[in-house]
Every structure is written in structure tokens, then in C-alpha cells.
Amino acid sequence: MRYAVLGTGVVGRTIAAKLASLGHEVVIGTRDPKATLARTEPDGYGNPPFSNWLAGNEQVRLETFADAAAWGESVVNTTAGVGTLQALDAAGAANLASKILIDIANPLDFSHGMPPSLTPVNTDSLGEQIQRAFPEVKVVKTLNTMNCQIMVEPARVAGEHTVFVSGDDTDAKKAVTGLLVSFGWPETAVIDLGTIETARSTEMLLPIWLRLWDTLGHADFNFHIAGAPSGA
Amino acid sequence: MRYAVLGTGVVGRTIAAKLASLGHEVVIGTRDPKATLARTEPDGYGNPPFSNWLAGNEQVRLETFADAAAWGESVVNTTAGVGTLQALDAAGAANLASKILIDIANPLDFSHGMPPSLTPVNTDSLGEQIQRAFPEVKVVKTLNTMNCQIMVEPARVAGEHTVFVSGDDTDAKKAVTGLLVSFGWPETAVIDLGTIETARSTEMLLPIWLRLWDTLGHADFNFHIAGAPSGA
């Protein structure tokens, strides 16, 4: 499968490397590839410059949002939530149409200081905004409730834990569940919450996730729904 | 210990019965005890009238919010979130001052239809509103992230699962943790998230809780934080 991963941050890199390791073809999309490759400083989170990462992942290419989206059979959104709709506009509705878009982003709003709040929230979500803006895209919200290392290596966290999926297209959710299983998730760990409207409820896990990160002092934790029957 | 439980719904009844079974003295507070006792129809959730419940729990008394709060050494808020501040105003700041107030309520807003949204949310919480309105009260937010049967009988859900506490007063949180242990919670299941500001993050679990209730078809589930060390 050809995957376009939108976003050059640590989530995009982690997903891209995992997809490539599973034998998929991967192109990462960004606004301005030349500018991204020209950076020599760590990013705002202390991650090494993208060019360093790319040198160690030669099977992955970097292209514009539009070229990546046009080429990919499926698309993964790992851009910062605040910039997601702009990035998808740059990718282009025609290049995205009828494809599965796996949305991992969270609409964290740092404009009011720390801890970040969510915008939108409560009566709307980023997942729903994407689905409304690109009605022909099959948006599946998933993996947005955990650290990216756990997304691609769930065994980092001992015991049972959960990954949620939300989306309007049942076949798209099935396909994404298959991808999650290939990442190492037991199928019984996947809880299908329903339509894309339920993305509200998973995005609203971010405040307690951020709080737990601080309280526990590490990010190797995940939500588990105790009492959910296997395969719910 | 003398506990004033504010609210006559199923959460209040369940907490009151548990406290009484543990040998505590319990008074339930309500706006208008005569009106509450006069009702002969099930409430909006299909629960039997309060008078029926009280007939089977003769060690519990029903009084006004103010009389209950004045009498109690600690107070438990189980009123509907939308009416909590009004109920606490009726209880009276002087009757609440310097007491521990265990806040189990969630600010569910049904005014926009189903599913309910939260008001306040994101940059504020009911727990914080209570603490600001009653600065001398020691507000501890806890137990608001699960069905009330599980609050008082955590073993209903198999395996490990979590109860969060939020509050500004460390000693009050210790006392409430002791109460949770007496309810059957292992001390290692209690995660202290920090100040009352962190009540935002637990109240924001309600949307996914409500969604899971629908998806799973039962309420005997709870959040567990996999990867959190015991006693975090």
C-alpha cells in the first residue's frame, strides 16, 4: 500500500518508519520540502532536524502535501491540530477524495498558555471538522489518545490497553483496524466507538493524558477500558 | 463520621447506603424534603420514588440542604451538575466552611439534546467553580468517572482499574483516599492528579464514558491507566 503521511514531526516520523518497516511505500508530505530539509536545528520539542531522520530512513521520501496526497492510496494526518485544515487544503480535496484519511491529530490550543486547551471541543471535534470540510474523504480517527511510540509498539505498555476508532465508513474502519493489528494491536484492543462524531470523546481524553504524563513522569501509559468484553 | 450527602438521586442513595453500611451516620440533603417524600412516581431515570428507598434505609434521614450540611462533618455532592452551585448556596457557605466536600457531580448539559455536552468545560470545571465559590471548603473531586455501583463496589469490574482524585488540600485528599479504601478500592488504584484544576480532565472523561456505555451496552466498566506504576 502507498501511504502519504502528512506532517514531519515525531508522530509522522514514527508512523512513517513503522509503515516502511511493514513493507509499505511511504511519502511524507509537508508544506515546503526545501525549507524542511534546510533546517539544521532541533524542532521545538527537541527532536533532531528532519534531514537527519530522513538520512536514516532512505526508503521514505519527502514531498509537498499535494504531491504526497496525490500519490498515496491512503493518507495519515499527523500535523499539529491547529494547522490540520490548512495542511489538508494544501493537500487538495481532489487528491484526497475517496481515500481513507487516518486522523491522529489533536486540536491542542497553546494560545492560552499551559496546559493547552482544546479548540474545537465538546460540541465539535477536529475529526468532524475534517469530515465536513472533505465530505468525500473517509476519515477514521484513531491512535490520538497515546504517545506515538505506543501507537506502533503497543507491547511497550504491559497488560491490556485500548485503541479507539471513530468514523462514518464501516469498511474504512475495518481497513484501519487491520492496519492497527499489523502494528501489533490485538483486535480485541480495538473499540469502535461509532461515527466520526465520537472523535469528540477521544480528543477530550487529551487533558487527562497530558496531566497523567506529568503525574507519572513518563509517557509509556495508555487508557484501558476495564470491563469491556474482548472484541467489543 | 457524620456525612451529609447532597442529592436524592441514585448516586446519592448509593453513596448514602454504603456510608451507612460502614457505620457512618448519614443525612441526605435536598431542597424540599416534604416535596421529595411526597413523590410517588419513579424519577426521570426510572428509579423508584425516594420514599420507597428511605423505607428500606431507616438509618438514613432526609433534611434540607442547609440542615444536612450544618450537621455533617463532611459533605458529599451528588446533585446534578447543572444544579450544584444552587444546591450549595442553599446548603450555605457557613455550614460548609472548612469541611471536606467530596464532589462526584459532572456538569452535564442536556439543553442541546443528546448526547449531553459539558458546561463548563476545557478551561474550567464544576470542581473549580465550587472551589472558587466556596474558598473555605476543601473540595476533592473523585468518583465522577464511573457508574455509582462501581464507586462503592469496585470489584464489580474485573482486573485493575482507576479512581482519580483532584483537590488543593493534601490532607483532604488523604482523608478521601482513606474513604475510598474503605469502599473497597486498593490504594494503588487511586491516582492523585493534583490541584482542583485537574477536575477539568476527569469531567472531560464523561463524553467517552457515555459513548462507551452505549457501545458496550452496560455500565460495569471503568477507566484503567495501563502502565501507571502501582501507587502513582
Automatic annotation (TrEMBL), chains A, B:
It comes from Streptomyces lunaelactis. GO terms for molecular function: oxidoreductase activity. InterPro entries: NAD(P)-bd_dom_sf, P5C_Rdtase_cat_N, STEAP_metalloreductase. Residues 3-107 form the Pyrroline-5-carboxylate reductase catalytic N-terminal domain. It comes from the Bacteria. It holds the Pfam family F420_oxidored. SUPFAM superfamilies: NAD(P)-binding Rossmann-fold domains. This is NADP oxidoreductase. Keywords: Oxidoreductase.
